[in-house]
Amino acid sequence: MSLPDNLNRWAAGFGDQPALTFLDHHGPRPLGEAVVLTWAELDRRVSAVAAWIQRRACRGQRAAILAPHGPDYVIAFLAALRAGIIAVPLFPPGHPGTVGRLAAMFADCGPRLVLTTRAQLAAVDGFLDSHGLRKPEVVAVDALPDAIGAEVEPAWHTGDDVAYLQYPPTWTGAPCAVQVTFRNAVDNALTLVESIGALPGQSPSVSWLPLHHAEGLLLGVIAPVAVRARAVLMDPAAFLLKPERWLRALTANPGAVSAAPDFAYGYCAARIGAQEKAVLRLDHVRALFVDGASAQAQTLSRFLAAFAECGLRPEAVRCGYGPVGAAALVSVTTAEPRRTGFDRALLRRGRAEPRAENAPDALTLLSSGTPTRHRVRIVATGSTLDPASGSSANGRTLPDGAVGEVWVSGALGPGFWGRRKPGERPFGNRLPDADAPAHGWLRTGDLGLIDDGELYVLGRVGELLTVRDRQHYPYDVEATVGGAHSALRAHQAAVFTVREFDRVLTVLVAERVRECSTQQVAGQVRRAVTARHGLVLDRVVLVDSGRLPRTPDGAVCRATTRDRYLTGGFD
Prior knowledge:
The protein is of the alpha/beta class. Helices cover about 30% and strands about 25% of the residues.
């Protein structure tokens, strides 16, 4: 059953029950002004917008969503699916530093329609005109009357039809959208729900993640509609300004399920004080997810220690892994993620040797669980491509305990939108020493290892620091930086390498949280990094708070930071 069918089913059987609550924090209320839609109201609004779409677009055409975070965004997304066209979750113009990226994604997907709101109409028109984009038809979804919903004709879907296009927020270079089918969307929701044993109607979803992100869309829209869960949403800016708002929403919704990137857990531990904690009750939180590709053991330890007094249970924290280039949630832990210490020096050489967590040479990693719906292999990095087909010609599978690139096969979706050059297409690769699945293997671009059947993800292959034939993991170095001086924080730094003539230089760009002596901080950081990692920081750049480029959910983007450094953006 597709998501539009599910919505219709819940409206028929549970029409007067709340489906969506949006916490608007622009007013004075500490918990936000609640805007509530029942299943019947949500279904009615979706049908109205879907009827308008069907008069103007044909099957296979695209509708770009340029609406602000909130109920109208959810309505626009579900309406595109009900109308039988492909939704493209984007964001409204006006976010600083994102207009160029938005224009590139818009041109790439070539939408027939734009779905926005009355408040954004002028901004959207100005954006289209200023970038010379082909002018699609634009509508404010909050201006359409419910009555036209009676004219909607149910669109026929198969599980393999493309439901929407997802642009990964951290993708560099030309925009590249992943096609997500109706089957992919429902399978991901079921993987998430089954990992925690959630029951329909009893585990509300609480989320501040951007709805144009894969995780935000899955948690805030797809999973709730798939399994009849009430969605409680708030704007990402509401969390970033006052992180206690997220935890207060968890307190107010017993049995809640939520997710956040690694930095958000450290942000909460550092910013929420005793006065705010006094009103928090987190003992009934069912699950808090974190992406295994960014999860750091010490961050989650600080978070659990900070909110143990509020009743937070360690087993409530879960890790999961979904590759950037796929439409699939590959693995999720069914309990508290396993913590395993590995020899840091051997990891740099590509071998995973267990060590006690408190050993001075240990790097503790968090498991992302055991893959169940997909097959996973660890493959030697640097596998070459067949220039004719774009598939790997000599991938070599590595044994358990070896570090390499994570390759995945299974229900990953049809691949990227549009035609790509061979080197830009990581789907359909071959492994000579493994069974050949029907659709080949996906090269995820992530480093990982398998230990005792569980997957550990160590970061992106392209972000690995390789200096003098030794490899270092940037998040590990950044964690050391954050603890080296009181003016710095681990989640407010980016380390990367650049080439100058015949030398590879290691560069650190970090935000200072207070005034300090640049020379003193740089010296202290250099000594700490050299002592722990045997790595020399050739350049240390300290900038004011807020200067580092971030993704819409607030995480520092290393690739963009590197690009800005190379173009003199931090001078």
